[in-house]
Write a structure and sequence with these properties.
- The structure holds three protein chains of three kinds.
- Chain A folds into two domains: 121 residues, Rossmann fold; 258 residues, Neuraminidase (6 Propeller), CATH 2.120.10.
- Chain A is 13% helix and 44% strand.
- Chain A contains four helices and 30 strands.
- The longest helix of chain A is centred in the first third of the chain and has 24 residues.
- Chain B folds into two domains: 73 residues; 124 residues, Tetratricopeptide repeat domain (Serine Threonine Protein Phosphatase 5, Tetratricopeptide repeat).
- The relative contact order of chain B is 0.04.
- Classes of the chains: A mainly beta, B mainly alpha, C alpha+beta.
- At the A-C interface, loops of A face helix 4 and strand 3 of C.
Chain lengths: 437, 245, 177
C-alpha cells in the first residue's frame, strides 16, 4: 500500500518530526541512560483529515514543553488531523476571534488558550475550541497544573479536542508498556502514548515477555525468566511491589486479564503440555479451562468477558480459536494459511487483530468478526504482539527494521502508520494501556 | 539376546576367578563367598536391567508411534475443521441463492398469472412479507417464523400466503425442528396443492423425515412428489435422491 | 590383587554391555544430518554400567556420555530422533542410580513467529525429553521440564543452520542452573 502525502500535511509531518527530534535530544540530555527515549516517526497518513489550527497559548513559554506544541503533535500523530501552521498570533482564550483569516486557511477547527500563573508555583491553563465554518465555540476547559504537569495537561486538552471533533475518545493520556533489550539487559518500560516519560518498571538480566495491563491500569502482569524458567508476575506500578502469581512446576506464561480485573487466564505446563488455566488475580484457585493434547496458548478475553480467544495447534498448525470463558466447545476462526497467532479482539469486540504468516512474512491482520473477512494491515514482514489502543483506532505492534526491534503503530483501517524506536536498543512486546479516568 | 550371553559369560568368568582365588588361598573362604554373593547380586541386577532395556525400547518405540498418531490426528482434525467451514460457507451461499431465485421466480409468476390480483396486493403486504423473509436471510429463523405467522394472520388470502407458509416450514427446518417443519409444509401441500411451492414443500418434508431417521417415509414422500408433480424442478431433485440410495 | 580382579571383572562387564550399546545404536550414524547430531551418535560406544565403581564425578567427566546435554529437533517437531536415545539412556541411568539428583530440562525454539507460541513449542520439546527419560528409568519427580522459547538463542543469525541449533532441549543437573 503506497501512501501519498498531501503537501500541507507533509510539511506538518516535517515540523512534527523536527519537533520530536529536538524533544528527543532535550530529553536525552535530561534523562538517564536507562530511560532511553522512544521517538515517533509518522510513516503514512490517512485520508479525510480534519484541518485544525492550534495557536500557541499565551504565556506558555513559562512551561516546558510548550502546551500547544504537544497538542499539535498529538493531533497530527493520530492521523485524523491536518495541523495548520499558525505562526505567532496575538490570540488567547480571552480574545474575540475574527474567523475570516482562519476560514481563508480552510481551518475547520481552531484551538486558542493561555497559561496563567496562580501563585505557589502553580498555573492555570485555559483553552477554547472553535468550529470555524460555524463560527461557534465547541467547548472550553480550565486546568490547574504544576510545571511538571505541562505535558499531561496538553495531552488532556488534545483528548478533549479529539473527542469533540471525531466523536471518539482520544488516547493521548494513555500509557504504553514495552520491553527494551539493551545488550544483556532487559527493561520493562512504561511511557506515555507518544513515547515520552519512559520509565523502567523492571530491570533484569533475564528476558521479560508478554506484559498485560490490568483493566484499571494500576498493574502489569508479565512473564519473567529471572528464575531460569518462565514465571508470571503481577506488578503494582504505584508501589513497585510484585508478586509471582503463577510459579508452578514447569512453565508459566501468557497472562491475560479478565475485563473485571478479578481473574487471569494463563498458560501452565504443570500437568504436561501448554494448557489454558483461569486463576484469581492473586494467583489462587487455578483451574483448567480446556484440555487438549495440543498447544493451547495466547489467551485473550473478549471485551464482554464472555469468551476467550486463543492460539492452538490442535488442527496440526497454529490457528485462532474461541471458547466460552466458562469452558465448552471451541470454535475455529482462522482458516487461511498455516500460521495464524496472537489473537487480540478490538475494544468494541467487532474486530480481531492477529499475526498471520503469508509466504515468509508475518503481518498484523484484522478480521471483521461478523463477515470473517481478513486483511493485512502492514507492509512490514516480521510483525509480533499486536495491541489495540483503548479507542480501537490504532494497533501498536512490534516489528523489525534492519534486524532491530522497533515498535510500529497502524490505524485499524491501515491508513495511518507510525514507527517508534529507541536509539541503540531492541524494543519489543508492546501493550497499550487502558483509558485512565 | 547376545547381551544376555555376554553377561552369562562374565558370570562364569567371575565364578572361575573366585574359585581360583580360593584354591590359591589368596583370601579367606568367607571373603570369597561374600565376593561371589556380591557378584551374583550384581549380575542379577544387570540381567534384570538388560531385560528392562528391551522393554523400554518397546515402550520408546510405542511412544514415538503415539506421537506420530497424535500428529496425524491433529492434521486430520485440521482438515476436518477446514471442510466443515467450507460446507457452512456453501450452505449459506446455497440458501442465499435459493432465496434470491425464489424472489425472482415469484415476480415472474405474479407478472404472468396474477394481473387481476396485483391490485389487491398492497404495498404494506409486500413490505410485511419482505421484512419477515429478510429475517430468514439473516439467519434469524425464530423471528422469521414469528413475522411470517403474523403475515399469515393478517393476509390469509394473499397470493404470497403459500410462499409465506413454505418459508415457515423451511425456517423450522433450519432450526432443526423437523416435526414442526413437516407439519407446516403439510399445510402448504394441503391448502395450495396447485401452487408452485407445493412440490418444494414436499421435498422439504422428505428432507425433514430423513433428518428424523424415517428413511422409508422420506422415500415415500419423494415418490409421491415425483408422481404428483412430475414436471417440477423439485421432482428432478427427488429423482436424484431416490436414485442415490 | 583383589582390587585388580574386581576391576578386571568390571571392565569385562562394561565391555559386554558396550557391545550391546553399539548394536542398538548401529543404524544411527546414517541418520546424522543435523549439526550436533554427530557427537551424540558417537556416544553409543561408551554406555557405562555400574557407575558407582568409576571414581570421580561422572557429570564432570568430558569423556562420559553424561557430558552431552543437548537434544536437537527438526522444524516444528518434538519427537526425539533415534540418535539421541543412547545419550538420554545414559542420563536416565544416572538419574535412576542417584535418586536424590534433580534435573531441569530447558526447551528452546527458533525465533520465527510468536514468542508465546514458541515458548509452548519449547515446552513440548522439554516434555518430550522428560517423557523419554522417564520411560528409560528416571523418576518423574526428578525432572522439571520448562521452556525458554525463543528468548535465549544459542545462535543469533537468521539462517537455517542457526535456527536448527536453537531448536533444542538442554539438560541441567541441580547446581548447574
Amino acid at each position: 500500500m503506497e501512501l501519498t502525502y498531501n503537501r500541507p500535511f507533509f510539511s506538518a509531518c516535517r515540523t512534527v518530526e523536527r519537533l520530536f527530534r529536538i524533544l528527543a535530544i532535550c530529553l536525552a540530555l535530561l534523562a538517564t541512560a536507562a530511560h532511553a527515549q522512544l521517538t515517533i516517526e509518522i510513516t503514512g497518513a490517512g485520508g479525510n483529515q480534519i484541518p485544525v489550527a492550534v495557536v500557541p497559548f499565551a504565556g506558555e513559554s513559562a512551561l516546558t514543553p510548550a502546551i500547544s506544541d504537544v497538542i499539535e503533535a498529538d493531533l497530527a500523530r493520530s492521523g485524523r488531523f491536518r495541523t495548520l501552521y499558525t505562526g505567532p498570533q496575538n490570540l488567547s482564550d480571552t480574545s474575540t476571534v475574527d474567523f475570516a483569516p482562519w476560514r481563508g486557511k480552510n481551518a475547520d477547527a481552531l484551538v486558542v488558550g493561555g497559561v496563567y500563573p496562580v501563585g505557589g508555583g502553580r498555573f492555570e491553563a485555559r483553552f477554547r475550541l472553535y468550529d470555524v465554518p460555524k463560527q461557534a465555540q465547541l467547548g472550553a476547559l480550565a486546568f490547574t497544573l504544576t510545571v511538571q504537569q505541562a505535558r499531561a495537561t496538553a495531552h488532556r486538552i488534545a483528548d478533549f479536542v479529539y473527542e469533540k471533533l471525531t466523536g471518539e475518545r482520544g488516547v493521548f493520556s494513555t500509557r504504553i508498556a514495552y520491553v527494551v533489550k539493551n545488550g544483556a539487559r532487559y527493561q520493562l518500560q512504561i511511557a506515555d502514548a507518544d513515547g515520552a516519560n519512559a520509565q523502567a518498571a523492571l530491570s533484569s538480566l533475564e528476558p521479560i515477555i508478554s506484559p498485560a495491563w490490568s483493566p484499571d491500569g494500576s498493574r502489569l502482569a508479565y512473564v519473567s525468566f529471572e528464575n531460569k524458567k518462565p514465571v508470571v508476575y503481577v506488578h503494582s506500578l504505584a508501589s513497585g511491589k510484585r508478586q509471582a502469581v503463577a510459579n508452578f512446576r514447569g512453565s508459566n506464561s501468557a497472562p491475560a486479564w479478565s475485563p473485571d480485573g478479578r481473574s487471569l487466564a494463563v498458560v501452565l505446563s504443570r500437568e504436561g503440555g501448554s494448557q489454558l488455566f483461569l486463576m484469581n488475580a492473586d494467583g489462587s484457585g487455578a483451574r483448567r479451562l480446556l484440555s487438549s493434547s495440543a498447544i493451547d496458548t495466547e489467551p485473550f478475553y473478549a471485551p464482554d468477558g464472555q469468551s476467550i480467544y486463543f492460539t492452538s495447534d490442535r488442527g496440526g498448525s497454529p490457528q485462532i480459536y474461541r471458547v466460552a470463558a466458562a469452558g465448552g466447545p471451541v470454535e475455529r476462526l482462522t482458516f487461511d494459511g498455516s500460521y495464524n497467532v496472537t489473537p487480540r479482539p478490538s475494544p468494541d469486540g467487532k474486530y480481531l487483530a492477529f499475526v498471520r504468516r503469508d509466504g515468509g512474512r508475518f503481518q498484523v491482520s484484522v478480521m471483521d468478526l461478523a463477515s470473517r473477512q481478513v486483511r493485512a494491515l502492514t507492509d512490514t514482514g516480521r510483525d509480533e504482539s499486536p495491541s489495540f489502543a483503548p479507542n480501537g483506532r490504532m494497533i501498536l505492534y512490534a516489528t523489525q527494521v534492519s534486524s532491530r526491534g522497533v515498535l510500529a503503530a497502524v490505524s485499524s483501517d491501515g491508513g495511518v502508520k507510525q514507527r517508534l524506536s529507541v536509539p541503540a536498543g531492541d524494543v519489543r512486546e508492546p501493550a497499550w494501556g487502558p483509558f485512565l479516568n | 539376546m547376545r547381551a544376555v550371553a555376554v553377561v552369562r559369560g562374565v558370570v562364569a568368568l567371575g565364578i572361575l576367578l573366585a574359585a581360583a582365588g580360593r584354591a590359591h588361598a589368596i583370601f579367606p573362604d568367607e571373603e570369597a563367598r561374600a565376593g561371589v554373593r556380591r557378584l551374583e547380586e550384581r549380575v542379577g541386577r544387570i540381567e534384570a536391567d538388560v531385560g528392562q532395556r528391551a522393554d523400554r525400547k518397546a515402550l520408546l518405540d510405542l511412544l514415538s508411534e503415539l506421537e506420530t498418531v497424535r500428529r496425524e490426528m491433529a492434521a486430520l482434525r485440521g482438515q476436518f475443521e477446514v471442510l466443515v467451514n467450507r460446507i457452512d460457507g456453501l450452505d449459506k451461499r446455497q440458501k442465499d441463492l435459493y432465496v434470491d431465485l425464489d424472489t425472482r421466480l415469484r415476480k415472474l409468476e405474479q407478472a404472468g398469472a396474477e394481473k387481476e390480483t396485483a391490485a389487491r396486493q398492497s404495498a404494506a403486504e409486500t413490505q410485511a412479507y419482505e421484512t419477515a423473509l429478510a429475517q430468514f436471510k439473516a439467519n434469524n429463523f425464530g423471528s422469521a417464523i414469528q413475522g411470517l405467522q403474523e403475515f399469515m394472520k393478517t393476509y390469509p388470502t394473499s397470493p404470497l400466503a403459500p410462499s409465506a407458509q413454505y418459508w415457515i416450514g423451511n425456517a423450522y427446518y433450519a432450526l432443526r425442528d423437523y416435526k414442526s417443519a413437516i407439519a407446516e409444509q403439510q399445510k402448504v401441500v394441503a391448502t395450495w396443492p396447485e401452487h408452485a411451492k407445493a412440490p418444494d414443500a414436499m421435498l422439504n418434508i422428505a428432507s425433514s423425515q430423513a433428518e428424523l431417521g424415517d428413511v422409508n417415509g422420506a422415500r415415500n414422500t419423494l415418490r409421491l412428489l415425483v408422481g404428483k408433480y412430475p414436471n417440477s424442478p423439485a421432482a428432478e431433485q427427488a429423482k436424484q435422491r431416490l436414485a442415490r440410495r | 590383587m583383589r582390587r585388580a580382579l574386581l576391576g578386571l571383572m568390571a571392565a569385562a562387564l562394561v565391555a559386554g554391555c558396550a557391545s550391546t550399546g553399539t548394536e542398538e545404536g548401529s543404524g544411527v550414524a546414517v541418520e546424522d544430518r543435523k549439526p550436533g547430531a554427530g557427537g551424540a551418535a558417537g556416544s553409543a560406544t561408551s554406555v557405562p554400567i555400574g557407575t558407582t565403581t568409576i571414581p570421580g564425578d561422572p557429570l564432570k567427566d568430558p569423556a562420559s556420555p553424561l557430558a552431552k546435554r543437548s537434544v536437537y529437533f527438526d522444524f516444528d517437531r518434538d519427537d526425539i530422533k533415534p540418535e539421541f536415545r543412547p545419550m538420554l539412556e545414559a542420563h536416565a541411568r544416572y538419574l535412576s542410580s542417584t535418586p536424590n539428583q534433580k534435573m531441569l530440562i530447558q526447551g528452546n525454539a527458533d525465533e520465527r513467529g510468536s514468542r508465546e507460541y514458541n515458548l509452548a513449542l519449547g515446552q513440548r520439546r522439554a516434555d518430550a525429553v522428560k517423557r523419554t527419560l522417564v520411560l528409560m528409568g528416571a523418576r518423574e519427580a526428578q525432572i522439571e521440564p520448562v521452556s525458554l522459547g525463543e528468548e535465549k538463542p544459542r545462535c543469533t543469525e537468521q539462517t537455517e543452520d542457526c535456527w536448527a541449533q536453537n531448536r533444542r532441549g538442554d539438560l541441567f543437573y541441580s547446581g548447574e542452573f
